[in-house]
Amino acid sequence: MKKGIIILLAAASGLSACNKFEKGEGDMTYKIYKSDGKPKIQDGDYVKLNGVQTVETNTNPDSVMVNTYDNERPAFFAISKSMFKGDLASGLKLLGEGDSAVFKLNLDSMEKYSGQPKPKGLKSNIASFTIKIEKVLHKGKDPDSIFEAKKRLFFEAEYKALNEKNKTVEPAKIAKYVEENNLKVTTAPSGLQYVITAPGNSERATLTDTVLMDYTGQFTNKKSNGTLNVFDTSDAKIAKEAGIFSESVQYVPRSLPLGQLPQGVIQGIQLIGVGGKIKLILPSKLGFGENGGGPINPFTPLVFDVELKGIIKPNAGLPLAK
User: Fold this and answer.
1) What residues does the PPIase FKBP-type domain cover (predicted)?
2) Alpha-carbon torsion angle 48, 52, 55, 56, nearest 10
């Protein structure tokens, strides 16, 4: 997996600077840097792929918008007729199973036909997609109804294999995170591992309370660029550094019903008082379990850094402050 990341990032940055790109449809240019000679992708096919999408901003020449390797979740892509000449679908049709390439696409055209607004602060009007085709399910002459059934079975088999892999490597992910960060953890009977950096006062939250807290949730693996792999935070600075900042989000301490949080977070918060700080390492059984949710894959361990700002009792208007 690491080798695939290195190859793709090299293509996204190094190859995009060279002059060996070929002219494709419309405004697209491309560079195929690995071809296994297998049948090319056609309209109607179903593909499993990994990829990195980057844009050039005023502050970063390779600002990553999507990286399936960081998410540890390949994309499944139904190939339809191109929306415009030079879109990603037209690029994928130049590839077959096992092939890799980088495509440069026009962001104005993408915005016009997809309805997705362009990122802010762009220095150029080009998005680079560095793609590795993992598998292809060819439609051939199958009727739609037959192929839909094949697609479902294909996806279920791939998803099951991914989940089994996640389940197998989960303990190693946790151990690696603890070792790499030189943590002296305490392990609870439930399997929760934690480090209390500030105990806080004597108050303890109960399941009926609402807690006011600052927090950052991240995956145990770092991103391919070496930064923290954050999926949620109440801290604007961390959100910006992680590339998940949103203008529509208020980055302030969050008021959350304690009983509705993941079990590992509930257990951890009950170990500290107001003003306390704790790092929590959740095995998936104390997080989102075998089903996952949102950006979180099944059997994924999580790390939360929490500072408890206040405890709001039922029917109380103000938190108990430090």
Assistant:
1) 208-312
2) -160
119's CB contacts (< 8 A; 6+ apart) are: 55, 57, 63, 65
**Secondary structure (DSSP) of 34-63:** E---PPBP-TT-EEEEEEEEEEEESS-TTE
Closest C-alpha to 53, from 221, 220, 222, 224 = 224
Query: What is the average pLDDT across 164-175?
Result: 98
Encoded amino acid at 158, one letter: E
Q: Is the pLDDT of residue 101 over 90?
A: yes
Helix, strand, coil abundance in the chain, percent, nearest 5: 30, 30, 40
What DSSP line would sit under 128-151, residue for residue? EEEEEEEEEE--TT--HHHHHHHH
Closest by Cα among 220, 205, 317, 210 to 268: 205
Give the span between the Cα atoms of 23 and 18, in whole angstroms: 14
The answer to whether residue 317 scores a pLDDT higher than 80 is: no
Q: Long-range contacts made by residues 227-234, C-beta under 8 angstroms, separation at least 24? A: 229/70, 231/294, 231/295, 231/296
Amino acid at 184: K
